[in-house]
Amino acid sequence: MKKIILATTALVATAGFAAAGDISLNAAAKIGVDYTGKVGAAKATSVVITELDFGINASGESDNGVAFGASLDLDTTQTDTATTQNVIGDPEAYIAFGGLKLTVGAVDAADDGIQNIADAGLFGIGVDNIAEAYTAGGSHNINVSYALDSVSFVVSTGSDSKDAAIAVSGSFSGFNVAVGYNTDKTTGAATKNTATLALGYKMDAFSVNALFAQQSATGAKDLNAMGLSVGYSMNALTLTATYAQNDSAHPTKAGKTQSGFGIGASYDLGGGLSVAGGFGEVNDVTQADFGVAMKF
Asked: What range defines the domain where residue 148 resides?
């Protein structure tokens, strides 16, 4: 739900001109408990987390039909009594005409938009991160997209880097298909090229999504990642199961690669309030969370 704090045409008397456009505010919050199991000699831990996410969005349209706008996020996270994140971020501005849109600012890489694996839990226990470990690399601040019926094309790059990404996606008869390619030329590191394939299907209350990615780098072995998530909704209840693996080294066990699985559930109480939680293992460490989510 969006709360409109300024809409339609406003006359600014002190400046002597008319400003036409909409400025809206959207907000979300989460309150819950996050559990991480024993890792090596370290004991299991439980922390209380509070997340707040406010978005400010402005939009307008010129006399000849060119749409334009800007957005900004205000995010903060508190873990127990410590504020672990307090950010004014994601500044973006765009202009668009027809199906063509140019966005400049803190944009995501083009292949980030095709990531489709659902995580389990309120905050997310991290299974999807394993599937998406090789995608959306690099530093990008320019994004160009074009939508034609049910097909969309996206290209992104960095004005001060050689990083680039491209993605094409489409949907038909309940199926969603997307392919992406990302070149990450981070200074001082080998160039990493990642190809991604995302597949999805939704029928009534049932949905399934799969993600496959392969990353190659000069002088290094190719790395593969995959993920699968299944969802089912029944009235106000939504159930999720997810699994992922990749070829990167396990963080604590030599000779083993990374993997994770999880199951989650959320119940919509109406009015923007829901209860959610998840349980699973990420790299052989038990992860769980539970709490409430709010949308305003």
From this structure: 3-295
